[in-house]
Amino acid sequence: IAFSNPQDIQIFVSVELSTTDEYEGNSAVRDSIISYIGGIFTTGNKDGGELSVGDDVIYGEIEYAIRDVDGVFDVTSLTVGKSASPAGTSNIPIENFELAVTDGTDGSIAVTST
User: Fold this and answer.
1) Backbone angles phi, psi at 12, to 5 degrees
2) What gap in Å lies between CA 22 and CA 11, rounded to an integer?
3) Using an 8 Å Cβ cutoff, are 106 and 44 in contact?
């Protein structure tokens, strides 16, 4: 029986938000996205996230993860992709041998809040 680890596919996210006084902060937004996709939290700890090998990254689920953070009033812009400076506004397909991951410590998730 042969076994191989899945190929990690880095997911990049860029989000602009309007917030209220109760806003938990940009790190909370990054961590919420990582809880969905999986990867490295802003603290450096790893998380498997909700996605498994071969699961597509669903655009709407990323927006739900962002809106789940206290103090997020509105998501005014959200783009996702497999490369830096993402421009996509749709789901990201993942192959059966791939695993979507992201990183809250390396700039893969850009958050601008107002």
Assistant:
1) -110, 140
2) 28
3) no
Instruction: Give the residues across from 101 on adjacent strands.
Output: 10
Cβ–Cβ contacts within 10 Å for residue 20, how many?
Answer: 10
Tell me the pLDDT tens digit for each residue of 53-112: 999 999 999 999 999 999 999 999 999 999 999 999 999 999 999 999 999 999 999 999
Q: At what angle do helices 59-67 and 26-37 cross, to 10 degrees?
A: 140
Q: Which helix (H) or strand (E) holds 62?
A: helix 59-67
Question: What single string gives the DSSP state of each residue in 63-101?
Answer: HHHHHTSTTEEEEEEEEEESSSS--B-S-B---TTEEEE
Q: Which residues are CB-contacts of 37 (< 8 A; sequence separation ≥ 6)?
A: 11, 49, 50, 51, 57, 62, 100, 101, 102
